[in-house]
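Predict both folds.
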Amino acid sequence: MSRAHSIAGCPTPGWIDGGQLHKCGFTRRMALSCLVDADHSDTARHYGNEIQYDPPEPRWQERLGALDQYVAHLPVGDTERERHRNHLRRQMYHACRAAEIEPPIRSCDAPVGSGKTTAVMAYLLQAAQKKGLRHIFVVLPYTNIIKQSVEVYRQALVLPGERPEDVVAEHHHQADFEDVSLRQLATLWRAPVIVTTAVQFFETLASHHPARLRKLHELPSSAVFVDETHAAIPSHLWPQVWNWLEHGHVTGAVISFWQVGPYRDSGN
């Protein structure tokens, strides 16, 4: 087999010393994710069910500049109340943009209407650019919030010459895709920015089924924003999830964990 491999002109990897696989279930699932994705991708391409498609480059610094421009051109407001509210939103944005990124896990208690959609993204882009991350995950509790956030991100983060759907992937059960490449970017978590549901995100972390597990290895070296954590998963499951997130940091994933309190009237 090795001889046939060499004759075919394929590179020959060096020998790996044998040893016991790590006993941690998360580490095992991460290894299985790499294996399953390679196997499924090769098989699907062979039968024409997937296409070879390279996702856009992260270009985090440029996207942060585009986000700055988007926020700078938002309406100031027609009434005194609107101007005051938008002034507070701009303060929120600049505070998040200038926040220290060294702590691997951060929290922010921000009420509805405070402008956290763009403010949090500014922080995540800063972290992604300075730490050389691969992806940004935005984990939201409801599909209607996902659609609103995706619309904002596609307006604010897409650079000239790019398709918005390539840069910001919308991943939930109601999402529609114009072609196979867009479906791959979203469902396999290969786009620079992935906006998904808490169900998709946390079930992927916990799953042992190949179809769902296939995308898990995209998580390491990523920034993750968990919105409305009180509604993301049942409270009694947080100890286990917290262990996964901490282990994700150990294996290379940078987790930006944002906590948003229960709904409060913002005056909108």
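Second protein follows, with its predicted structure tokens after the sequence.
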Amino acid sequence: MTAGAAALRGRGAASIETPSGKWRSAENFPVGSLLIRRDLRRHVHTFYRFARNADDIADNPALTADDKVRRLDRMAAILDGAPGEDSPAASAMRASLIERRLSAQHCHDVLHAFRLDATKLRYRDWDELMGYCRYSAAPVGRQLLDLHGESRKTWLASDALCAALQVLNHLQDCAADYRLLDRVYLPMTELATHGIGVEALARERSSPALRHVFDSLLDGTAALIATARGLPPQVCSSGLRRESAAIVELAARLLRRLRRGDPLAGRVKLHKSDFIAALVLGVSRGSRG
């Protein structure tokens, strides 16, 4: 245990978890929906709560980078068995992993991504952004697949889907991330190619040059979604197969909305009709798996 983590533990049962102020109610995709096997839903929700609470630490503008890392390290320690009640989400996650006899590796991977969020504010190019997604997004899909006992052959398509969802979310939140956290996920090479810098994100509307950057990233995301369409047919669990098919459809719909919308003018988001259509298509396509 680091000295910082020990100091946090010494504060007693006061929680190290803290809301970030970012919108929890604006999630794009279902988490542990009724399509998921009943006995696994609470484990899905436990993982989601763990990841979300860690994400909230990394996104809290009132905390210093060092404090964020100390809190995330403390969550990691509890995940690995350290005593303490200061991170209920980590304690619950550890209990879930023990019950399901799963490794904590995916949880540690997402904690690594949140440490990056606390300390890294810029990304050089698409490849570096995909390297970040390997830790911030891919472990989420892998955890769900492992929880269902699916083959690791599904990981390639799952990683593509999760990376696509991550980039779409980055584009949705690009203005707030820059204004509130000075964090920019848009690759610096893309901005430079179109002759602009990060300050373009401070405007009320996107410039033509920034629109070209968005479209370039959406092109890369469309390729990820094309790979992700191969995921549902590989999934054995009927509920997870249907849910993954619905999420692929939602990703495609959000991409189309971002093609037409301006994230600087207002948050581009899915509509109720998108969720209904994706659910119907997901159930239909998943049933043919």
